[in-house]
Amino acid sequence: MATCSCEVKACVLCEDRLYAGLSKDQICQLREHLIRELYEPREALFREGDPATYLFALRHGQLKLTSSMPDGRQQILRIAVAGQLLGIETFKGRTYPFTAEALTDVVACKISHDDLRNIIEANPAISLRVIETLSHELDQAESLIRDLGLKTAPEKVSSFLLSLVPLGGDPNGDLPLRLSRREIAEMLGLTEETVSRVMADFVRRKLIESGRGFIRILDRKRLEEINGIDVNTTGSPPRAVSAKR
Amino acid sequence: MATCSCEVKACVLCEDRLYAGLSKDQICQLREHLIRELYEPREALFREGDPATYLFALRHGQLKLTSSMPDGRQQILRIAVAGQLLGIETFKGRTYPFTAEALTDVVACKISHDDLRNIIEANPAISLRVIETLSHELDQAESLIRDLGLKTAPEKVSSFLLSLVPLGGDPNGDLPLRLSRREIAEMLGLTEETVSRVMADFVRRKLIESGRGFIRILDRKRLEEINGIDVNTTGSPPRAVSAKR
DNA sequence: TCGGACTATTGATCAATATCAATATTCTGC
DNA sequence: GCAGAATATTGATATTGATCAATAGTCCGA
């Protein structure tokens, strides 16, 4: 068997514990199919409509997945973080349904659908991890559907801010994601200006602090009240209320 | 090994071809863990916030998955059709993040997370089918995010109508789904009245026909133009345009 | 076949948020 | 440190779709 140059680090397809139970040959076989790639901020891994051949596992950094209307309106479907998969939507599809663009420096492993299929068939432990990852992503997506479908602008922004907390950093520390106002707007189905106004209002009410390139949550409890329902969908019961209009 | 009473029919966990390659014992083992259940229209399989123990595979009928805000605002996250899984979002979660309610008479198989885990680990063919199903559901969810985030009311309704076509029936026949105006509104993040107005307008413009309990598409092409982008996300390239406001 | 309840349609008005526009701030390359 | 560009803030106004309300159609049981 060929030697392996692929590093073993945290990512759904690469994580150490996945190798438990696999033979040395199997491990090498898996590593052989993974192609490790680097991307710079603003660089696209692939674009909406491109023929879909590879699936990507994000090993380091953050991505935004976006879809556009022909007139330029753009929607962020998801922010992907290390450990997540992208492009698996096309497991049976022909073209990528979204553009994947690096927000930070990014390390990703790519693997062809065919290879993935073979590996899954041979390695139940890996397929279990893939299923766990996918189900979490589906949960996230449904959470965004909730936000987009039935929340007001302040509720959306508060939901967005709270959803960033688990992405890293202590609850009262700086949030670990640097999106522009425009990008936040594109995620929440709002305009830049509305996001700016809502955030200004939150600052005025001392719910958050916001300087150049950072946001800090000052009053998590009141943000949660504004949000209306819990951010972590699989969690504690609902809280306080505010009507849509 | 115990005898099997579970019927073998179309559903992700039950489908015939899954059994190809499995030993008789394995097949029996799988069937043993599946619990077949029947539901009537309006009956709930489970409710948002219930402790999540089972995963469901929908074998026959249609379901709506909804999430509510404490003040009663409700969002339909997804319409599930035969072959789809539900509750897998909670593979690692503790409570169901949505309510699953039958729209028609429903047959579903349920299986505990633990059993599913064991079966997946033992049967790569099944995990492959689960992954395919999940990735399709993720694709659907992202498509709804697009609709909710960047479309106008007429665009949303046209997208909704077009998305029903592949669910069955020929392109110019009656649509196979009977949702009330209220339910369509809850799916698209609109109100009953707005849906009604848009549909009335579509009828006036001879794009659709709509009688008691049925909708028929008369002019697919113009509906697609209104929709702006394609319904089938993994499909042909974009078409004509209309701006959001 | 009637009566009540639910669902859909239609109209008038309102309000949240988009749009348009101007200014301020921050970032970048030189 | 400066000039230009990009990003963010703030204000004035417009517009989509919500809300409130009344009417009409449909379904269902008695």
Produce a short descriptive summary:
By secondary structure, chain A is an alpha+beta fold.
Helix coverage percent of chain A? 25-40%
SS summary, helix count of chain A:
8
CATH class of the largest domain in chain A: Mainly Beta
Please give the alpha-carbon distance between the first and last residues of chain A: 65 Å
The CATH architecture of the largest domain in chain A would be Sandwich
Extract low-pLDDT stretches of chain A: 1-10, 232-245
E-strand count of chain A: 10
For the largest beta-sheet of chain A, the strand count, sense and barrel status come to: 4 strands, antiparallel
Order of helices and strands of chain A: HHEEEEEEEEHHHHHEEH
Oligomer: homodimer
Task: Describe the secondary structure blueprint for this structure.
The structure is a homodimer of 245-residue chains.
Chain A: H1 16-19, H2 24-33, E1 35-39, E2 44-46, E3 54-60, E4 62-68, E5 74-81, E6 85-86, E7 99-102, E8 106-112, H3 113-122, H4 124-150, H5 153-164, H6 181-188, H7 192-204, E9 208-211, E10 214-217, H8 220-227
Antiparallel strand pairs in A: 1-8, 2-7, 3-6, 3-8, 4-5, 4-7, 9-10
The first copy, chain A, binds a DNA duplex (30 and 30 nucleotides) through helix 7.
